[in-house]
Design brief:
There is one protein chain. This protein is of the alpha+beta class.
């Protein structure tokens, strides 16, 4: 499975390397290990161009992102250069569209076709989760690993992640990494 991981720090590969493992996920039980162990990763990857820049700001994009995304979308940027309001609005719009598609599906089929929407979940709760920074499966800093690879974060964990992002200095480098395990 592929997951979006947000890495905070100047050396994303160096921060990720201690979590690398070639055995991958627990195939028998179908869930991730307690600590994410990546067998493959790519900066940007399936989430290329996820970070949108403020006008006139710069960041880093891999070759695929440069070819397929608008120039203001990058894979890595300083926190102060990211247009957070636009990104959250885009996530809200995507969540609204996902919710509308899910509601058009027979209730018995939703868990198969729309696993990100929990059974009996209220629309407001789904959209709040889907448009938050806990969109990421994991957030890795030099001090801590926030791991949500096999479950949705609790509201307290979601608030902790939002507070972490908010508390970062403007010159913190953020990188979106596609990790497989």
């Amino acid at each position: 499975m592929h997951y979006a991981v947000l890495v905070v720090g100047p050396d994303p590969d160096g921060l990720l390397e201690p979590h690398r493992d070639t055995s991958g996920m627990d195939q028998e039980n179908g869930h991730c290990p307690d600590e994410p162990l990546f067998d493959w990763r790519s900066i940007g990857g399936r989430w290329c161009g996820f970070l949108r820049l403020k006008p006139g700001r710069t960041g880093w994009a891999n070759d695929h992102t440069k070819k397929t995304c608008p120039p203001d979308h990058v894979d890595s940027a300083l926190k102060e250069d990211i247009d957070w309001d636009h990104m959250r609005q885009h996530l809200r719009e995507m969540a609204e569209a996902s919710w509308q598609r899910a509601m058009a599906i027979a209730p018995g089929q939703r868990s198969l076709l729309c696993p990100s929407i929990l059974p009996n979940e209220r629309k407001e709760d789904y959209i709040a989760h889907a448009s938050s920074m806990s969109f990421f499966c994991a957030i890795l800093t030099s001090d801590k690993l926030y791991n949500f690879c096999d479950r949705r974060p609790t509201p307290d964990e979601q608030a902790e992640v939002e507070a972490l992002i908010e508390s970062l200095p403007g010159d913190a480098l953020l990188t979106v990494v596609d990790c497989h395990y």
